[in-house]
Write a structure and sequence with these properties.
15 strands; 37% helix; 4-stranded mixed β-sheet; single chain; 7-stranded mixed β-sheet; 14 helices; alpha/beta; binds pyridoxal-5'-phosphate; 2 domains; Aspartate Aminotransferase, domain 1
Length: 429
């Protein structure tokens, strides 16, 4: 029985029916190789995870070396050197006064822990999040996820959650236009606190770029306005950098685009260890010290191999100047994509930061009818031409381009060329 058949028979349909028809044998750098020996240029990075590239030799060497020493002893029962080293490194690379870290295994676990810490630090219980936001698949993280498709057949959810309007300029929920709107969606958060909560708000949880929601990129001043509103209300700012972190957007963390913003808690996962499972949150003092021994734990959290991989991954990102490359290659790719937008009316919007790029496809420019089937068809055409990309957005009509941050100028050109060819063959393009 081959892998596709095994998936069909023995893997839950939730996975098997949505999976791409590629059987991956190996991957290196930006190249994914299937079992038939065909190479693909990976522009999705395992959902924005392998920022340093697949199987980076330094990351593998660090993980291998750690594996020979210690696989698991529980980093919350005993001191483990590599865990201490990674915590010190995160205090260094995260912005502002963020200092003390907790380690788990996934993005959802990082967000759950962040919310719990915020509740303990403030003594409050409510949380505000955003429509179109996504924070994971546990009950707590789905409760603050503003996407009903992700929430279906699983409620009721946690009470005490209010949602602000999405900073979705292309389809502004307030019917306004940037910059004449003066970022009204950010100012609206004041009303959300005043009208939709009991005033007992522990935290505002926000992705600086809303990834699963369709690479929604709020204006840079959005986060500063929001931070001020919540800090004035006595609440904490939890920045969900699970998808945007570790160079993806052309800064080490995307919240650095918003000057003067001091997150109280920064949550991360995905790109932290370039493929090894690890989640974390880092908090500033004294917020971090609200959790007392026994309040929180994760058996596999701070796994030594993942932590060793994370340390090597951060060193690679810094020494190979991948953050800078993400900014430059992002500009290059965006410029080409904007030219394509001029030629192809199906491209309604091109947006993103660094190498977190979204192309929103529509059936008509004026009515903006989402072109979801066409988006999937375009992904398939790109795959046939040897380029892997993602599809996302609440309406399923956003092509996601999120390659490893080491992508070269020539590879960016190839992505744009292949896209141009595929678009020219689309019936409605
Ligand atoms: C912004 C954001 N937060 C949280 C998560 C959840 O991460 P995980 O799937 O590792 O639980 C994701 C996953 O896509 C995400 O994009």
């Amino acid at each position: 029985m081959d892998t596709k058949e095994q998936y069909a028979r023995y893997v839950l349909p939730v996975v098997a029916q949505g999976v791409e028809p590629v059987v991956v044998a190996s991957a290196r750098g930006r190249t994914v190789t299937d079992v038939d020996g065909r190479d693909y240029l990976d522009c999705f990075s395992g959902i924005s995870v392998v920022n340093a590239g697949h199987n980076h030799p330094r990351v593998l060497a660090a993980a291998r070396e750690q594996m020979e020493q210690l696989v698991h002893c529980c980093s919350y029962v005993y001191h483990v050197p590599v865990v201490g080293q990674l915590a010190e490194k995160l205090a260094d690379v995260t912005p502002g006064d963020l200092k003390k870290s907790f380690f788990g295994n996934s993005g959802a676990e990082a967000i759950e822990g962040s919310m719990r810490l915020a509740k303990q630090a403030t003594g409050r219980r409510e949380v505000v999040a955003l429509s179109y936001g996504f924070h994971g698949r546990t009950i707590g993280t789905l409760s603050i996820t503003g996407n009903s498709a992700r929430k279906r057949n699983n409620g009721p959810y946690m009470s005490g959650v209010a949602f602000g309007p999405a900073p979705y300029c292309y389809r502004c929920p307030l019917g306004l236009k940037y910059p004449s709107c003066e970022v009204a969606c950010a100012h609206a958060l004041k009303d959300v606190v005043a009208q939709q909560t009991s005033g007992d708000v522990a935290a505002f949880v926000i992705e600086p770029v809303l990834g699963e929601g369709g690479i929604l990129t709020p204006p840079a001043e959005y986060l500063s306005i929001a931070a001020r509103i919540f800090h004035d209300a006595g609440a904490l700012l939890i920045v969900d950098e699970v998808q945007t972190g570790f160079g993806r957007t052309g800064k080490m963390f995307a919240c650095e685009y918003s000057e003067g913003v001091q997150p109280d808690i920064l949550s991360m996962a995905k790109g932290i260890a370039s493929g090894f499972p690890l989640g974390a949150f880092t908090a500033r003092e004294p917020v971090s010290d609200a959790m007392k021994p026994g309040d929180h734990l994760s058996t596999f959290g701070g796994n030594p191999i993942s932590c060793a991989a994370a340390l090597a991954n951060i060193a690679v990102i810094q020494e190979e100047k991948l953050v800078e490359n993400a900014a430059l290659r992002g500009e290059q790719l965006m410029a080409r994509l904007r030219l394509l937008q001029e030629k192809h009316p199906i491209i309604g919007d091109v947006r993103g930061r660094g190498l977190m790029i979204g192309l929103e496809l529509v059936r008509d420019r004026k009515g903006k009818e989402p072109a979801a089937a066409e988006t999937k068809a375009l992904r398939a055409k790109l795959r046939e031409q040897g380029v892997l990309v993602g599809v996302g957005g609440l309406l399923g009509n956003v092509l996601r381009i999120q390659p490893p941050l080491s992508i070269t100028p020539a590879e960016c050109d190839r992505v744009a060329d292949v896209l141009e060819l595929a678009l020219s063959k689309m019936p409605t393009a």
